[in-house]
Amino acid sequence: MKIINVVGARPNFMKIAPIQRVMDATEGIEPFLVHTGQHYDERMSKFFFDDLQLPQPDVYLNIGSASHAVQTAKIMIEFEQVLLKEKPDAVLVVGDVNSTAACSIVASKMGIKIIHVEAGLRSNDRRMPEEINRILTDSISDLLFITEQSGLDNLKREGIPDEKVHLVGNVMIDSLIFFKEKAAQSTMLDDLGLEKQSYALITLHRPSNVDDPDVFRRLISTFQKIEKELKLIFPIHPRSRKRISEFGLDEMIASMPNLKLLDPLGYLDFMNLMHNARVLLTDSGGIQEETTYLGIPCITMRENTERPVTMEVGTNVLVGSDTDMIYEEFKKVINGRAKKGSIPPMWDGHAAERIVDIIKKELM
Ligand code: UD1
């Protein structure tokens, strides 16, 4: 059975790696890796292939950045050619990026089975491009693999038949566990002259936070307040870096001696910094889950989350972009009153094995 595994953007690579590894070791399944090239900078792509020991993609589509419509359309045009040539039995997509939705739509029109890993998540905020990608992909998928109970509830509400849906755990946590020891060997702390637990780690790239100059300025002024009490390490997404210049925020950044901006990091270096951080300040989806698994406080600068289990049982708190709320949660952490959490069911390092077992049963 030939299965095309699709990756496009940074958060896809750590999700595909364990699936690709298990498929490689499974008799009767022939995985074929397609990279759309939605992310193409070395630091957003190649570093991850190296760190995660992913094989070179069988096909690279070289799509690059563009508006949503142009990017999605270009992926569809190129991916159709791949499907015509390779004639796979199924296409497996992960997450919620434009590549996920684009490739699913093409496969569905060609009558090829679609497997969606990390299905069912909903922020219920349709202003997020990812929410549209999630709804579209789930509605046309044949097998839907779920990370947390809310995914089952959401898909039931949307009328997706139960027999297509399987709660299997979290493939991103598979990667985190698999690479934990290697990440511990990264020299990031020494390189940056940091002690364990002596800094907060920041990531910020959502359009809602960085594309609006007022919001982005407010968040940076919040960091100005926080950096007086704790070092801030900020590996910055290319989109956010561009906005800092566009919005004339460089001087604010330069005025903070305790804030260190870094280029985007590879998987192992970032994991190392996360494992040793006092707290994460982020708007990422995946980091909410990784910190929940690791039991590290996570202050999420968003109004909503598609991953409610990270708030219900994990260490995650939502604070939006409100300076007072962010600072208040930060003080709780500093004063030893950070939220304690536990690990959601089946986040145990074996999600990819469950997925491949079910694919064998259902599709072979
Ligand atoms: C995409 C995903 C988002 C995910 C994020 C992780 C969608 C709709 N969004 O957002 O869910 O959380 O990836 O990073 O798919 N750029 C570069 N080099 C690159 C890639 C991007 O410079 O290798 C810059 C370009 O200016 C580009 C911008 O970043 O226009 C945005 O890239 P894009 O892929 O459109 O979306 P992300 O914001 O990265």
Structure description:
About 45% of the residues lie in helices and about 15% in strands. The chain has about 375 residues and is of the alpha/beta class. It folds into two domains: about 1-170 and about 345-364, 3-Layer(aba) Sandwich (Rossmann fold); about 180-335, Glycogen Phosphorylase B (Rossmann fold). Helix 15 links the parallel strand 11 (about 280) and strand 12 (about 300). The model has no long low-confidence stretch (mean pLDDT about 100). Uridine-diphosphate-N-acetylglucosamine binds near residues 44, 96, 205 and 238.
Instruction: Note the main sheet.
Output: 7 strands, parallel
Secondary structure category: alpha/beta
- Structure ligands: uridine-diphosphate-N-acetylglucosamine
Work out the number of β strands.
13
Q: Kindly state the mean pLDDT as a whole number?
A: 98
Helix content: 40-55%
- Which fold name corresponds to the CATH topology of the largest domain? Rossmann fold
Record the strand order, biggest sheet.
3-2-1-4-5-6-7
Q: What characteristic shape results from the CA principal axes? A: globular
Distance between the termini: 7 Å
Radius of gyration: 20 Å
Q: Which blocks of ≥5 consecutive residues have pLDDT under 50? A: none
Q: Which CATH class of the largest domain? A: Alpha Beta
As a percent range, the share of strand residues is: 15-25%
Number of domains: 2
Q: Indicate the CATH architecture of the largest domain.
A: 3-Layer(aba) Sandwich
